Amino acid sequence: FFFVSVDIRGAMFSRVLKGAPPPPASVLDLPLDVQHRIIGHLDWRSLPNAAATCRTWATLVHQQNQSAACGHEWSHAMFKGEPSEAIEDEDSSSHNGGETGPNGTGAWQFVEYLLSSSRYLAKSSRPDVVVVTATPSWQPHLQDITDALISHLPNRKSVHVICCVAVGIIGTDEEGQVHEVEDGSLEAEAIAVALLHLGANQRVFSVSETNTSARQKRKDRGNDMRIDDTLDQIAAFAQANAPTCGTGVSCPCCPERGIFSFLVGDNVYDVSDLKTKIESKFRNIHMMGGLCGYDTRKQAVYYSSPESRALEEKGSEYPLGNVGGAASAMDVDSQTPRNSHDGTMASPSSTAASPSSQGLRSPHGGKGPRVSAAALFICNQRTTRASYRGIKQLMSDFEVDKMEGDEDGTKVFSLRKRMEGGSSIRSAALPMYQVLRELELKHGSLHGVTFGVKRKIPVSVDSGDPCLNLVEGNAGGAGAMAPRDLKTRVESVDIVRGVWDPDASDRLEAIVVPVEVKPGDICSFYTYSADESLKELEEILKTLDSGSAAASGSGAMQQQQQQQKAPSSCFGGFLIICNARGSYLHSGLPDVETKVISKNLPNVPLIGFFANGEVGPMPFREWSLTKYFQAQEQNPDSQLFGKNPQFNNTVLQGNTSVLAIARI
């Protein structure tokens, strides 16, 4: 007889009645929660194959990628040694016994080794961002390593990759130990990689500058237009997904403070240009980075974004400014096939064309202009960001007595010494030559001495801090700012010149400093110290435990802020150290700064490099006025500078270290 049923069990029964064997058991017959658990145990190389099985599993894989269990992963690996120890020539067999990778360099196997060391191969999450730092000997191989990384990743259409070469790097090995590899050390060559997987409510963008002449840039404005278009996309996404500040009230600066940017480049002109373009759009962005490179004739930044790869696949000209796109769900159509014999991943030479064959070559490899600066943007990412330099006060506090304006700033003639302990007692006016004589006796010389004015200002190091905007006495809609929110910071400047006393040619009548001061301002003389630098770093790390320097509030809100700032919420960090610091500053001792960070933040991996100039906020103990801080407001406690202390809070500076900790 004939029987039809839309029910699966009915269909099976009809087949039995007909004498037909029952259909084979399928994993799709399992309960949905069991299928979810199976998907959750697959590594990220197997997930594309699972998604390609059927529509149902494609949906499950997408849900897995968007779930909380598949967010905020930071994987890391590091290889210390020369490239010859890891990547062999095409005439030699590869280091793991397999075939060589693209162009016969062995980069394919080396990247496989790095990913295995990072334990990322066993994780069921995809990397949205890959950051690689390498010392100069690795520069000839870095393009092949970049291509091999992209070829390995199943989501090659959505991942953003930035690789940079520097004289020294910071990386974390597979055991979780952070290393500073400096130029001149016994182990002076290394390469480090960090792979970041973000949450479902986050998005990654990227832009770049190319090393082209000013004349060519004036002719072709397409690069600026592409960058502006990407910045508009970032602004739209940030506005639509803006977190509220610590007060629970959304304000205009919250979307911008939720954007973390990592900016690198090999020359100051393109880095400054890209920084200016970004800050013209986002004044409150949490930006950090630095100048990498070691030889102006050689490329130091290797960059790949979804759009640059898409254009290359279409055969388009390599974009002058590679703008990035969103980190989407896993790209099933870009999965890497496996060998039919042993189940291992096939080399790009035996599968689809590798990125190198698709045109992702550096200009020295034959295609595209040379990328000289690049910036990553992670939207809706909470970060704690601060710089430290180690300013040290050499004398007691003074008050400005006699001064007058000067074309270079202020001419200071005399000071009054303040008694210790904050007493209101002042000494008689001391002429400048007498103050300088006492300073020279105490410090030994005036070399490396700066003049600093103490200011009471709001300080914010965490993007989740309560908003500090001051508009008509209102702090981000949360009421007037309390005096405890103001912190003493030093506006330290070099002494421009001395003014000789016309009545005595052997002594100075005044000094000229490039800062505006007035009678009664508290000031002193400063220098920089290695010990004070570590103390300043400790002060920054303490904000992760006890709330930030600007946090305020009480009750449940304050308790929530304390929980959010616990070190357990930190899952990785970026560290940029000036070339003049490191072991040169710390009496030849290696890994001094990273050991302090690891002691306070165990199991938090870091990646970074030693820079020729650092991009970040002013040092934690210091402050500097910018064009956004010229307005002055009277405050009962002291002089308060700026109506919005979070505006334009990123500078390109030297002799500093910049730390940014990514938070969950």
Task: Give a short overview.
The chain contains 15 helices and 30 strands. It has 664 residues and is α+β, with helices and mostly antiparallel strands.
Distance between the termini: 63 Å
Specify the helix fraction band: 10-25%
How many β-strand runs?
Answer: 30
Q: What percentage of amino acids are in beta strands?
A: 25-35%
Structural class: alpha+beta
Low-confidence stretches: 1-13, 90-104, 317-366, 469-484, 547-566, 626-648
Mean pLDDT: 76
Major sheet summary line: 9 strands, antiparallel
Question: What does the radius of gyration come to?
Answer: 29 Å
Please report the number of helical segments. Answer: 15
> What is the 3D form?
elongated
Structural commentary:
The protein has 664 residues and is of the alpha+beta class. A hairpin with a 2-residue loop joins strand 18 (470-471) and strand 19.
List the main descriptive attributes of the protein structure presented here.
664 residues, alpha+beta, nine-stranded antiparallel beta sheet, six-stranded mixed beta sheet, 30 strands, 24% helix, 27% strand, elongated, disordered N terminus
